[in-house]
Each structure stands twice: as C-alpha cells, then as structure tokens.
Amino acid sequence: xxxxxxxxxxxxxxxxxxxxxxxxxxxxxxxxxxxxxxxxxxxxxxxxxxxxxxxxxxxxxxxxxxxxxxxxxxxxxxxxxxxxxxxxxxxxxxxxxxxxxxxxxxxxxxxxxxxxxxxxxxxxxxxxxxxxxxxxxxxxxxxxxxxxxxxxxxxxxxxxxxxxxxxxxxxxxxxxxxxxxxxxxxxxxxxxxxxxxxxxxxxxxxxxxxxxxxxxxxxxxxxxxxxxxxxxxxxxxxxxxxxxxxxxxxxxxxxxxxxxxxxxxxxxxxxxxxxxxxxxxxxxxxxxxxxxxxxxxxxxxxxxxxxxxxxxxxxxxxxxxxxxxxxxxxxxxxxxxxxxxxxxxxxxxxxxxxxxxxxxxxxxxxxxxxxxxxxxxxxxxxxxxxxxxxxxxxxxxxxxxxxxxxxxxxxxxxxxxxxxxxxxxxxxxxxxxxxxxxxxxxxxxxxxxxxxxxxxxxxxxxxxxxxxxxxxxxxxxxxxxxxxxxxxxxxxxxxxxxxxx
Amino acid sequence: xxxxxxxxxxxxxxxxxxxxxxxxxxxxxxxxxxxxxxxxxxxxxxxxxxxxxxxxxxxxxxxxxxxxxxxxxxxxxxxxxxxxxxxxxxxxxxxxxxxxxxxxxxxxxxxxxxxxxxxxxxxxxxxxxxxxxxxxxxxxxxxxxxxxxxxxxxxxxxxxxxxxxxxxxxxxxxxxxxxxxxxxxxxxxxxxxxxxxxxxxxxxxxxxxxxxxxxxxxxxxxxxxxxxxxxxxxxxxxxxxxxxxxxxxxxxxxxxxxxxxxxxxxxxxxxxxxxxxxxxxxxxxxxxxxxxxxxxxxxxxxxxxxxxxxxxxxxxxxxx
Lengths: 501, 320
Description:
The structure holds two protein chains of two kinds. By secondary structure, chain A is α+β, with helices and mostly antiparallel strands.
C-alpha cells in the first residue's frame, strides 16, 4: 500500500494553507502579529451648492484603493437624496439625485483610509492622446517653441515632462510660457502641451493629508505615462513623484464634481488621522465576497466572537495530539482537557484551576457516598450532574458573598463533562487506587493548562482568527503526527531497564 | 532515568505509535474487532474452532436478569464475572468461594449478594465497556488452576500472554498476580511478568512495574525454575487463534487448567508492550522475520518455525 497519496495530500494541505495565509497577508494586509498599529485616516468631503429649485443631480469622484492607501469603509449623509455608487470611465463616482431642491444644499461623504505602504501599484491604461485642439495664433508658435525647448533637453517622457513643467515655474518662466499662462490654466495647459508632443498625460486630483486640517481643497497633479508606468508630477514646481501624504481622489482625468440643477458648487475636505490596532483595521476592511477572501469577518460580530473560540479548538486538540503521540501523557477522556481549557479561557487560569479542583474534590466525596446506594450507572451519573450543579451554585453564591466575583465564572465549566470526570475518577480510585487517579487527573489537568496557554496566546488567537489557511496547516501537521511511528518521550523512560543489560 | 531512541531501536523495542500504525493498523481489520472485543463472541467462536475455553455458567443481559444472579450462581463454588466488552482487565470480579451468603474474593474480601448484583448492574450499564456502550455480563467457572504454579502466584490464576503475529507465536510471558494486583494478572496493576522462551516454555526473566525481578514479591519463590507443561499444545492453541479471528496482530491470553490443560481465556486486538520488558528484548526483529514468511502455512509449521527461530536461554540464576 503506497503512502504516496497520503504525503501528496499532506503537502497539498500545507502548501495551500501557507499560500492562503500569505495571500491574505499580501492581498488584505492582515498583519502576522496582533500588536501592530496602523494609521487610519478619516476623511470627510462636504459638497456645497445652491440648488435652483428643480431636480438636482450631483456627481462626485470617489477615491479607490491605491498605492499606499486602502479604502476601509465609506458613509454618506444626504437626507432627501437618492444615492448610487457608479463605476465609470475608470473611476468610482457617487451620484446623488433629488426631484426638488432649493437653497443651500450640503452633502457629506466620509471615508476611512488605511495607510498601507506595501500596497501594490495599480496598473492604469494610459489615456488616449488629445490632439484635436487647435492653437490660435500667436499661441501656436509659443507652444511649439516651448515643446521644442523642453524636447531638446530631455531623454524620455518623464524628463520631458519635468523640463516642460520647469519652464512654467516662476524662476525659469520664459516669454512663451508667460504668454501661454495668460490665456490658459496651468494644469490643462501642461497636459495639452504634453499631448501635443505625443506624451500621454492627464490631470488628476489629489488630497494632501494632514491631520486635523479642515476646509482643504483638492490639488491638481499631472500623471505622465510611459509604457505601462506612470509618474506623478506637481504642475506648480515640476517635482516628480508622489508625496507620501498624497491621496489621489480622482485619477481618471474626469471632473471631480459635476452638479446639474445647482450653482456655486464646491467641495472641501476635513480629515483626521488616528492609530488603531492592525487587527481592528483589518476587520473593518470592505469585504469582497470572493472565495479566496472567504472570511469570517463578513459574519455578524456575535458570530465572529463565537468563531474566534471555535477556531481555537484545533490548537487545543493539537496540544493533546502532541502530548499523547510525542510525549505519551495519560489523560482521562481524550479531548476532555480541551473542553476544560475552553472553560479556563472564560474563567482565567487560577480561578479555573481552583474551581475545577474544588468541584472535582467535593464531587468525589459525594460520589463516594452515592456508590453505597447501589444505583444504576446512568442514574448515578445524573445524580452526580445535579450534585455538580449544586456545588457550582454553592460556590458561586459563597464567592459572591465574599466579594470574589471571579468565583462566579465557575459556571462556565461543562457540567456533564465534569460529572463524567468525577465518575471515571471515582471508578479509577476504586479499581486502581489513588495513584492512578493522580496520574490521569494530573495528566488531564496539565494537558488542559498547556492547551489553555496555547489557546489563550494573543498571537495564536490573532493568527487562527485572521488566517483560515492555518487550519489547513494544522490539518496537515496532525495528519503527519498520526503517521509517527517513533518512540514517545515517556517510553524512553519506561523501556530504559530493557536497554540496561 | 532516560534512555535514547537509538538504544531502544538497537534493542528492537517497538513503541505504542509503531504498534498502532505499523502492526495493529495494518494487520488488524477493524471489521474483525468485535470478535475479540466481545468475550461472548470469542467464546462461541472458540467452541466452533475446537479451542478450549473456561466453562460458561451463564450470561446476564438485562437489568431485570440481575435479580436472578443468585439462582445462576447456586451450586458453583467459585466463579468469575466479567464484562463481555471490557478491556484491560477492568470489571473482572473473581469469587474464589462462597460461604453462606458471603462471596469471597481471592484477597479474602467478603462481598454480599448486593455487592455482586451491583457489579453486574454496572457491567450492563456499560461502565467497563469500550465507549460506555451497554454490555453483557459473563459468568464463567473458576479455573482449577494447576497446582504446580501455586508457588509463583498470589491469590490468583496466572495466565500466559502470547503475541501471535500472522499466526506465528512471536513472544510469550506469564503474568503472575500479586498482592498489589488483587488477584488479577494485569502488569500495570502490579502483577509480575515473566518472559517465557518460545522454544521450551521456560522462564527467561521477570519484571514488576517495569523493573527486573528474580522472585515473586509475595511468595518469595524464585522464578527461574518456572516451566510450563504442555507447551506445544499451548503454542498450537495460540497459533490457531489467527485462523479463528483473522487478526494479524493478536494477544492471546491462556490459562492452564489442572484437568483440561491449556485453554483460551480471552483475546486482545491491541496487546500491550510490557511483554518486551518481561522478555528483555524488542519485538521488532521477530516481527520483521515473520513479515518475510509466506502466507498459508499450517499452524503446526508456524509453531515449529517460531520455536526454531525464537529460542532463548534463561537469564535467571539456576536454582542452587
């Protein structure tokens, strides 16, 4: 019987688990460690216009995830307006509409942006060249002279753009440039000149992020393309490259705001930055429901909390498997320690241990009496269950009276499991003596404590909850452990006498 | 305190993990487990195959039937009550003799009828069965054990565990009950294990609680002179259990009855590894050798093969 399919399955599990985890880390910037802080910007755009009294339609560009920033959540406040989010002309836009609007109108759009330095550069198709514009005299000669001057001093599209823009900056402004600026706005003029020289370029609008700023406006920047690459230029200084704190708001070369049925429209921005734990930042990420993004984060919060615990169970089970297969520890009930460890998570360790020992000890004493009554087994265990509930109630009330609120958490113990434990321990005591009870009970408790330490580790909690691929890795590891034919640690002690002679 | 995996490996010791995966998992078909996990089934099967077992006094299958246990026991001097699906010797109650309305265990402890009834009731509820499923209680006649072993045991019947692999007896040990083991022959409860030479049926060495012993802790009798009579029959009986159950890796527990000779007490599809301690030798070389043997060899030839290849001389001092 070939073991090859088995190893293939294990390899498949491990590889897909690692791949899924890395995919989640790279694609969604889920950090590997829980402590990491991430900067989040809250940006609010306020649209103001004076409505004419009839139907009004407002169309505004919206930012999308881009190099350096990832959009988390967005909200709008616009009473009386219908709202639609549109994907058009390579950008996202919001469209507000209403039948009747008079007077000053205010619309709000707010967005949470996560600073994500390692987000990939999105590839953008270069826009088509705009060449249908005809210059009027004398601007045509001025334009061609400016282009020629910059062309001769450049090597490629990007250096050409730099030279061209610098000709329009204050210190080096020539006659031609000054002439052109009297007639045209700077940014559209630059784009037009670039296009005329066969350099694809377009205007984009960006927001300079500065914490606590209010009433900011968008600034115009120029994107210049060469092959599939694009570079951002500041049309005022000729500076090349995207400043770190620049969020591109509109990057499709369209108008930022279009208002129909209103006048005097403007949009301004306020923003504030804050740091929040990376895990929380990830949680508020907009979820695209694809299979690869299969995520628990799309569930309601309550169910998420439940899953956080459920996803820890394999970790506890792994601890049990390790201790049994590699160490050889005896426990009473295979996965009872995992359930006890789950209870410890609710009660905290010391309270849990004390509570467990108290309940089991008192339970054993009472069970000892029950054994004189000659009851049927199931009835006896049921009696033990009721006894355990009674013990727990008494302890809770006593703890509360003494002001020990921790004592109340004892109710988190799985009572039926506790009862069976007491029953088994009692039988074990009768048949094999207190030593075996100590060995098995101690083994169970030690396993439970180790499982608790593993499951309660913040790092492990973070990893298991955020990376579902880890479950596949665990599966692979456990399959491998199930295939281990070597010695257990305690067997090295047990079989020692044989090797001595 | 500790040894190294390399030294254990050199000795050919197999560990739990290897036993479970390499031998039990590979050679014992799950489907066949009920034959050995249910002692009643084993008994009936053994009768079909002409393998001697202790007499069955009766069975208790319902809680209602518990009340009739007194009638069933009447007239029997000593008996054993055991769960059909018990494991590891759990739930076995040995009554050596009956005095009036008192049932006396080998340890001298006196039980009332109620105690016995409660024990049977517990068995029926599944307290001792694997997985806690409802069970059946078997009542068997007490073995009239061979007086020649009286010196080697304390309050109980010694039994002989033979590991049978693919029908070949590979290793054997005798388990002697002690005061610590309450008349039962379970090593982890403190019984003494004595390694037995497959070729001759004589003692090789002894262990208690995994430590070497040369004498019985209670009777003080040395173990070296231990010799099992009718060894050939016992080996054949053990080897025959392979055909009977189809299980490749099997622990057979035999007892020697004064009148009826070797008989099969029970079978175990997951025999423990303490037999290696008792023999001072790992199972692995023997199992490897058997794995290279062809299938379909008759029991007599298998026994002959084992006796030829697995002969060992005693490590115990010869009696002065």
